[in-house]
Design a protein that fits this description.
Layout lengths: L1 E10 L2 E11 L4 E5 L6 H9 L6 E6 L5 E4 L11 H6 L3 H12 L5 H12 L2 H14 L16 H15 L3 E5 L7 H12 L4 E5 L3 H7 L2 E6 L2 E6 L2 H36 L6 H13 L26 E12 L2 E12 L3 E5 L6 H9 L6 E6 L5 E4 L13 H6 L7 H10 L16 H14 L4 E5 L7 H13 L3 E5 L3 H7 L2 E6 L2 E5 L3 H8 L33 H57 L9 H30 L6
């Protein structure tokens, strides 16, 4: 369906591709990998026709359609979320716009209705609603103007549009960046049955392992194909590099031998022709390149925090609720020095709330939060990048701290997080979302707390940056509590697991694989969202031997009744769990919005308390207006919380 044939492409004086070829057939599931700057985005531009190859050709099967989801930015206008999800063709989009802006009794409106119907518009809506729901949109969101959504939710709406459209070839650039865990699980399952071909760039190794049938690596300006998923690719790449290194060394020995003969006998008349022949033989060789060394990302000993007391932080009899919606009641929690704990559980279970209570971002409504001796708390959230000063350079930002490190030290650490050369002189204003996340991590690791709380730290990070973070945390001597949906990262970092569901905490004194074994999870990803009361699982009773004559009829009947009772109870639990999941998903969405508004409210209040704010003409007025808007939005969302709580009943909790 897609053919890339002997393509060469140079950009800014650097050759990205040279005689590169690739074939993607219908139904293929392909992961595209390579280091930053290797040319992944350029390859997408060539496929989309936004750029032209210097040599070779890129061709798409006649009438085949392409859909593309960029990594960070996508447009949003006056159309509603549902209209955006249904905007699968120019004809449908035009008809939607006319239907929205013209009188219902006008000829133009009737013509638009006919066009909308002709292009299957009415059939698109039910499909769009199902997909939007899978991506965690509420029904009340469907009629909201898309431009009122945050950037991440706009990206979800565009992802929904592509899934509704079902193009023959789906190009996805880091599609999981803007998804919460349950949406990611839904999306992963949806793609397993996607009818078209998929070519994706992703840092999520578990996502690639579950979905792709081959990996395309950009290396040595070529497109090298490996059959299988991510883990299979790593094995095959290592074997290929060993073979390439062996072939390279053998060729270098041969070249050295030929060159030695030529150098020795070039000036000797009787041997000059032979010497010249050896030089020509060297020139005619197809040179084998040395394999690119896979350097470890982190080569630097990171600063370490001061040692805390044995008991780092304690929550005692803590209650927390959003309006009438109870998250925790009588919560007890304690973290000890050196623990590395991942929080798992379904959306809305209270994972982020617990992390915020520990961080002090949320005040304790009842009970006590006690910080241990010499403990210093640091909190890294998905919104931390908003705290960066847009006017500072990357290097200035890395050193802007109470105890600044040397420029050489800062540049070394920045380099391990892929800020190299002149990149350190960029202002933070021009950085991408992933670059800002990496920079915020650098700041945290250069002046680390001894209690580190992290909420989805790998979002927007590429594979190299995730490895850098894993390497840094391997050196970290403090206490770590984190939330992540990256299975690779969890396995590399976590030593214990804390399962959270309906305000109840269940600790597992082992790593993530230990937790998987004890929870009897169906998959490593699914276990992150499990809402079952895992600690109530009973061990399987040993099988009893039955006498040769058979068991008495009453005993058989009793066993059959027990099985039927267990089956009925399981079905009841399943139905209850579904209701709870639906409720928790809605509750979690509201929680995220409310907490973000609370954070912005604090920031605005702090700005208005500064005397210098009133020296900037009009700044105070603008900040007051925004504060009023934020307060109004918080009141509206809190009212939705209360309504949700009344509907769900008093015993429900997130």
């Amino acid at each position: 369906m897609l053919t890339i044939s002997q393509v060469s492409k140079a950009f800014a004086g650097r050759t990205l591709f040279e005689d590169a070829s690739l074939q993607v057939n219908r139904g293929d599931r392909v992961g595209l990998v390579g280091p930053n700057g290797a040319g992944k985005s350029t390859l997408f531009s060539l496929i989309l026709g936004e750029a032209s190859p210097d040599e070779g050709r890129v061709s798409l099967e006649k009438a085949a359609t392409i859909g593309f989801l960029p990594q960070e930015h996508a447009p949003a206008g006056e159309e509603t979320v549902l209209e955006l999800a249904c905007a699968v063709s120019p004809e449908v989009t035009k008809a939607q716009r006319i239907m929205k802006t013209t009188p219902e009794d006008s000829a133009e409106h009737h013509e638009a209705l006919h066009s909308f119907d002709e292009h299957g518009g009415w059939q698109l809506e039910p499909k769009a609603k199902r997909i939007l729901a899978g991506l965690a949109f509420r029904e009340s969101d469907f009629d909201r103007p898309a431009k009122t959504l945050s950037g991440g939710w706009v990206m979800r709406a565009h992802l929904a549009r592509l899934l509704v459209q079902e193009p023959d070839l789906l190009l996805l650039d880091e599609p999981t960046n803007h998804l919460d865990l349950e949406s990611l699980v839904w999306f992963q399952e949806y793609l397993t049955n996607y009818p078209g071909a998929i070519l994706m760039i992703s840092h999520d190794r578990e996502f690639l392992n579950q979905l792709v049938g081959s990996i395309i690596e950009i290396a040595h300006r070529r497109l090298n194909r490996y059959r299988g998923n991510w883990d299979s690719y790593l094995e095959q790449r290592a074997a290929r590099e060993d073979q390439q290194l062996s072939a390279y060394k053998n060729q270098q020995k041969e070249i050295a031998s030929l060159q030695l003969f030529a150098d020795r006998f070039r000036a000797k008349a009787s041997k000059a022709s032979q010497a010249q022949s050896k030089l020509k033989q060297i020139d005619r060789m197809e040179k084998i390149e040395a394999p690119v060394s896979r350097e470890r990302t982190v080569h630097f000993r990171f600063p370490q925090p001061p040692r805390s007391g044995h008991r780092v932080i304690t929550l005692k009899e803590v209650d927390h609720a959003y309006g009438d919606l109870v998250v925790y009641r009588g919560l007890d929690f304690e973290a000890e020095r050196g623990q590395r704990t991942v929080l798992v559980g379904p959306n809305g279970a209270g994972k982020s709330t617990l992390l915020k209570l520990l961080a002090g971002v949320l005040p304790v409504q009842s009970g006590a939060r006690e910080i241990g001796h010499n403990a210093k708390v640091g909190y890294f959230s998905q919104y931390r990048v908003e705290m960066l000063d847009a006017k500072q350079t990357v290097l200035e930002t890395a050193r802007d701290m109470p105890n600044p490190v040397s420029e050489q030290t800062a540049r070394t650490v920045l380099g391990s997080f892929l800020f190299r050369g002149d990149d350190v002189f960029k202002t933070t204003a021009v950085l991408s979302g992933g670059e800002k996340t990496r920079l915020a991590l650098v700041r945290l690791l250069l002046d680390p707390p001894n209690l580190l709380l992290m909420d989805e730290p790998t979002t927007h990070l590429d594979v190299g940056s995730i490895d850098a973070l894993v390497g840094a945390l391997a050196q970290y001597e403090g206490t770590l509590i984190f939330i992540s949906h990256d299975v690779y990262f969890i396995r590399a970092v976590a030593k214990t697991v804390l399962h959270i569901n309906a305000g109840k905490l269940t600790p597992y004194a082992g790593d993530y694989d230990y937790y998987l074994d004890k929870s009897r999870a169906t998959s490593a990803r699914a276990a992150l969202t499990s809402g079952e009361k895992l600690h109530n699982l009973q061990p399987v009773a040993p099988r009893q031997e039955v006498p040769a004559g058979g068991a008495p009829a009453l005993q058989k009947t009793g066993m059959r009744e027990t099985r039927e009772q267990r089956r009925a109870a399981a079905e009841d639990r399943k139905a209850e769990a579904k209701i709870k999941r639906d409720y928790e998903k809605s509750a979690r969405n509201l929680e995220m919005q409310i907490l973000k508004l609370e954070g912005r409210q604090r920031e605005l209040t702090e700005e208005l308390e500064k005397p210098e704010t009133y020296d900037r003409g009009g700044a105070a007025t603008q900040l007051n207006r925004e504060l009023q808007t934020v307060t109004t939005d918080m009141e509206r969302l809190t009212a939705e919380w209360e309504k949700l709580a009344e509907t769900a009943g008093p015993n429900s909790a997130v």
